[in-house]
Structure formats: C-alpha cells, structure tokens
Write a structure and sequence with these properties.
Oligomer: single chain
Shape: globular
Radius of gyration: 23 Å
Largest sheet: 5 strands, antiparallel
Helix content: 25-40%
Distance between the termini: 26 Å
Order of helices and strands: HEHHEEEEEEEE
Strand order of the largest sheet: 4-3-2-5-6
Number of strands: 9
Length: 240
C-alpha cells in the first residue's frame, strides 16, 4: 500500500509511514481505530516512527558533540599555550583542555545513553513545591571586581512524581510556573524514556500539550504540533 499523505510505498501491515509519520489505513482499522479527540488515555502515537527517528538523530548529535569536545578543547588550549609567552603554559593548558574535553564528552555520552537505555515507567504526581532560593552569581553587574559575586534570587517550581517502583522523579523549572500549573496532585503519568517525555493520562483539563519532539506548547485540541507538525501525544484507541 501507499501512504495517503506523502505517497511513499509501505508494507501492507505498516501502522505509520516511515517517511512522514502519518497513520495508515491499517492503523485506523485496528480495534476500532483511534479517537484523537479523546483526551483521556495513553496516546498510541508514541509508536509513531517519527519519534524513534528523532531520538536516534538527537543521540547521534550528542555523541558527535562529545567526540568533537574531546578533540577541540585540548587542541584549542594547547595551541594557545604554545604561542602564549613562548610556550611556557603549553603543558598546563593542554592538561586543562584534556580535562575539559573528557568532562564534556562524558556529559554528552551520558545524555545519549540515558535516552538509548532509559526505561519507561508509570507514576503518580504526589506533591508540588514552590521554593524561593538564591545562589551566587560570579561576575554579575553588581559584583565588586573579578572573582566577586552577587546573590541571585530565583523561584524553583517542582512537580514530584512517585514512580511505580517507589522511587521519585522531579520535574524542576526555575522562574516559570507554566509547566508546574499543568499538573495536579493525583495525576497519573507515563515517562517515555527514549524521548525523556512525561505524558499525562488525563489531558482533559490540560491547558496545553507539549510536543514530545520539539517541546513546543500546543492547544490540547490540535492533532499536530504548530512548530514541527509532528503528532501530539493525545488520543486513545477506540474501544469495541
């Protein structure tokens, strides 16, 4: 069969088009099809290959960034040390470059691996916290000279989720209650590890639905993201 959206040839049992991500006739016909107006239930659209494709591309970028950091930091600082003050700082700076390169590459690889092997789980929102905090900001506008700091105040909004294994996962955002206000204590959620995305089971009272691919906020009654046009994680399988 062929995709009704882009015309690409597909296997007869394909549920989604691998090229554009559109649902196929086979998908709509199974178990009564999908009810995309239903805002209660786990979205079947997480099976859309566009999300796996996006995750693979993101992981590839992070791995490449890690490898680049491993080469660029030592090369850049080593070059600077070689030509600065007759090369007397060459070895100290190249050592710093190697350390920064290793640290940066490990950070990039950890992000990629978290998505590659990150498990999915179900949980419940158990608490919401708003905390006024402050931290040191070095070199700020009000800091007195190099190495000095000023105190920076901020508000931390946290949504606490108890996972089905008893452990906790916290969504923390600074100085914005936008995502915080979209959750209520008692909400059932599902974490999709390969996208690092938290989906609510009941979206009927949601002010918006975040796109699992680009993070753009969308009206819950839309089917596709207004920014990247990928399907939103909403809707449910129709019951018999």
């Amino acid at each position: 069969m062929f995709c009704e959206n882009c015309g690409k040839q597909l296997s007869d049992n394909a549920k989604f088009c691998k090229e554009c991500g559109a649902a196929t006739t086979a998908t709509h016909n199974e178990v009564g099809g999908y009810d995309n107006d239903n805002l209660i239930g786990w979205s079947p659209h997480i099976d859309n290959p566009v999300f796996r494709k996006s995750a693979r591309a993101y992981n590839k970028r992070m791995i490449i960034a890690g490898l680049v950091a491993l080469l660029v930091f030592p090369l850049a600082l080593g070059t600077y040390g070689y030509f600065d003050h007759g090369g007397e700082n060459f070895y100290p700076l190249i050592g710093v470059g190697i350390a920064l390169g290793i640290f940066s590459s490990i950070w990039c690889f950890q992000i990629a691996m978290r998505r590659i092997i990150g498990p999915s789980w179900d949980g419940v929102v158990t608490d919401k916290k708003v905390t006024k905090k402050r931290r040191k900001k070095y070199g700020g506008a009000n800091a007195n000279g190099p190495g000095n700091y000023e105190w920076q105040s901020y508000t931390l909004y946290e949504v606490v989720i108890q996972k089905d294994d008893g452990n906790y996962y916290v969504i923390g955002i600074e100085d914005s209650s936008f995502v915080f206000d979209n959750y209520a204590v008692g909400d059932k959620v599902r974490y999709h590890g390969f996208m690092e995305y938290v989906e609510k089971y009941d979206k009927s009272n949601s002010k918006f639905i975040l796109c699992a691919k680009c993070g753009n906020d969308n009206d819950p009654h839309l089917d596709n993201c207004t920014h990247c046009d990928n399907p939103l994680l909403k809707g449910a399988r129709k019951q018999r």
